[in-house]
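User: Hey, quick favor. My workstation is busy. Could you predict this chain's structure for me?
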Amino acid sequence: MISLAAVEHWQVQELFLSRPFWCGIGGWVAASFVKMIIAAMKTREFDFVYLFSTGGMPSSHSASVTGLAFGLGYTEGFGSSVATLAFAFAVITMFDAATVRRAAGEHAKVLNAMIRDFKELKFKPAKRFKELLGHTRTEVVWGFVTGALWATLVCTVF
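Assistant: No problem, here it is.
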């Protein structure tokens, strides 16, 4: 049971004044805008779906967790327990993006090819699967760089 004393001292607005919070959110936003610009350069049109989609260059997930980890490192000290925890969380997230989620995307490509083949044979196929789920290692690395640069900018300039 939550004590009333804990609720009285819980101030949500402090979250929005926290540098690590803006390092993580800003890393996500920065990577998403870069992703949208890269896609626009390829297709010659802006598609705002890249601001909220998974996959692509750079990894928004990697930028977000790296930004958070660097933000905590800058504010709490890179040797602090909370920064260490954040860096471990970031490594697990980036590993997952480059392996498990990437493999799921590859499986979706195979399944979608099978669905196309079934359509040609006049079978009623299931819906298409989302193929852009994970990231290449390069996309993860550039997500890391984006998040680290954003957090450095937020914590040293602002």
